[in-house]
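Researcher: I need the complex structure. Ligand is N,N,N-trimethyl-histidine. Inputs:
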Amino acid sequence: MNKIENISFNQNISNEENIISLLKNKRKSLPTQYLYDDLGSKLFEKICDTEEYYLTRTEKQILELNASEIVNEVLPSEIFEFGSGSSKKTKTLIAKVLKKNKKLTYFSFDISVKALKMSYHELDKISENLDVQLIKGDFNNDIKRIKKGKKNRLYLFLGSTLGNFNNKIAINFLKNIANLMNKEDSFLLGVDKVKDEKIINSAYNDRKGITKKFNKNILNVINKKYKLNFKEKNFLHNAKFNSEKSQIEMYLESTVDHSIKLPNNENLNIEKGEKILTEISRKFSENTLSDLFSKANLEIKKNYSDDKKYFSLYLLKSMKYP
Ligand code: AVJ
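Model: Output:
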C-alpha cells in the first residue's frame, strides 16, 4: 500500500485542556471528530445502509445521474477529496474520468487511518491510470498544509460533512478551499437540505440502533485517549432537529446523577437529564447556502439535486479569478 502522508499537527497538550473546558462548560460538549475512530468510521458506514438514513443513498443517486455531465464540465486530472471515508461514492466519478482522461491522481484526505485504508482498497485495483495518494489530517487544522494542485484539480466535500461545522467554521473552511483553488480548479460540495422534520429525525434515530451505538462510541474513544471513566450505560442517545437553528443536535443524555474524574483530577458532576453535545448536522436552505458561498468567495456554476430536493450537489468556482 502507498504510504500515508501525515500532515496533522500534534496538539495533545491543548487537546487535554480543551476537553476539560468543553466538559466543564454549562453546555457540555465533546469534539465531534472523536466519533470517527476506527470503530466509529465503520459504524458510520453501517448508518449509511440503514433505511432511515437517506443522505448517502440520495447523494449517490445524484452523483450517478450527473457524473458524465460533471466530468465533461471539469475534466479533472486530479481529484482531491476531503473526508473521503471509504470513497465508495467517488468511485462512479473516478471511473467516468478514467474513461475520458488518460491519467488521474486521486488524493484521499481523512482523519482516520482506517478510512484511508478502506479508500485505498476500494480504489487501488480500478486502473493503472489511477494514482491513489493518502493524506491523514484534520479539515480545520491542517487545511493550510495542503499543497495546491498541479493541473485541473476537482475538490470534493461530500456527504454533507459541512453540516458538522457552525457558520463561522464553515465559512472559514470554504474560504480556505477557495484560496487553495487555481483558476481551472472546481469544487463539488454535497449538502443536506431542509425538509420535513420527521424525515430528518428518523434518519438520526434508526430502528436498528446503529446511530445510538455510533454516538455512544465517542465515550470509549475519549476514555482511552484521556484515561476517563465514562460509562455507556449512564447515557442515552438523544438526537433531535432544532428548527430554529435548522440542525440536528446529537447528545448523550445522562440517565443518573454521577461524577467523572477529569484528567486534571478534578471531579465533574453530571446530573440526571444533563446532555453532552456530540454533533450538529445542519440542514441547509438555498438562502443559507448562497450567503455561505458569497462570504467564502465561491460562485455557483451548477446545482444538481434529486426529485424530492432532499440533497444537493453544488459545483463551485473560486471568485478570485473573474
Ligand atoms: C458524516 C457528518 C455527514 O451529519 O449526517 C450520521 C454523521 N451522525 N448520523 C451526518 C452522522 C449521525 C453525518 N456526517
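Model: Summary of the prediction. The longest helix spans residues 54-74.
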